[in-house]
């Protein structure tokens, strides 16, 4: 999954793709480099960020999704917590909704996804982006995150979304300390036990900055290390900025591991399978 932030303030690439034409070009480049899914977002969720008004978010993402839909066969995801933004994005040709609130921020979100027959990512977050990094605390980190995801899966299914259209994500960096993030990555098998495709979003994040003592643009090696180890542990979808470099590293790792799709690029790739599970176009 390639990250396409149409925002002025995202932590790693804010302002680079606010112009729709640039965003579309970058999305096409990500697809060319190997992204099976393009995740278009119009609101930063970095620590300390505040929500963007609905009209503003719509104005950022819709032209980009419309144009990408005409130009690429890649799956398109909309990274939003607002039901109205999700509905308009799905109408414009998006295939899945990446909701970092796991349908908690907007009571209409689950219904929108269900009625559209779309797929969705349900992500764990402790608190809200404004305050989540102030003092993250868990008694049983993995148990609490897994319990939360299991409960959100049940809620989504109760709203009419078939389980095969749901993807889970422990929410790296969302109300987590460096140690929490490392433990979540170490214990992926416990999230895979939920029986749904597992998405991980560690790309260029602050915990890598702490380990490497480097700014977001200098965290590629850490991102690649996390990607390779995640694939080895069975993760299905990696949400990353540096698609070309990560895809090449993952392809090499898959070949060494003897996974079927190594060296491929064909439809059997795990991320494609995971996305196709929810694909209804
Ligand atoms: N991380 C970010 C945004 N959306 N969605 C999922 N499912 N998982 C993640 O880990 C995740 C996400 C934050 O990264 P980014 O989009 O690069 O930054 P910003 O929120 O500042 O736009």
How would the blueprint of this fold be written?
Layout: E1 2-5, H1 20-33, E2 37-41, H2 54-71, E3 75-79, H3 83-91, E4 96-99, H4 109-116, E5 119-123, H5 141-158, E6 166-169, H6 178-186, H7 189-192, E7 199-200, H8 206-212, H9 220-233, E8 237-238, H10 243-257, H11 270-276
Parallel strand pairs: 1-2, 2-3, 3-4, 4-5, 5-6, 7-8
The site of 6-hydroxymethylpterin-diphosphate has 21 residues, from strand 1 and strand 5.
Q: Describe it for me?
A:
Helices cover 44% and strands 11% of the residues. It is an alpha/beta fold and 281 residues long. It has a six-stranded parallel β-sheet, with helices on both faces. Helix 4 links the parallel strand 4 and strand 5. Helix 6 packs across helix 8 and helix 9 runs parallel beside helix 10. The radius of gyration is 17 Å and the shape is globular. The site of 6-hydroxymethylpterin-diphosphate has 21 residues, from strand 1 and strand 5.
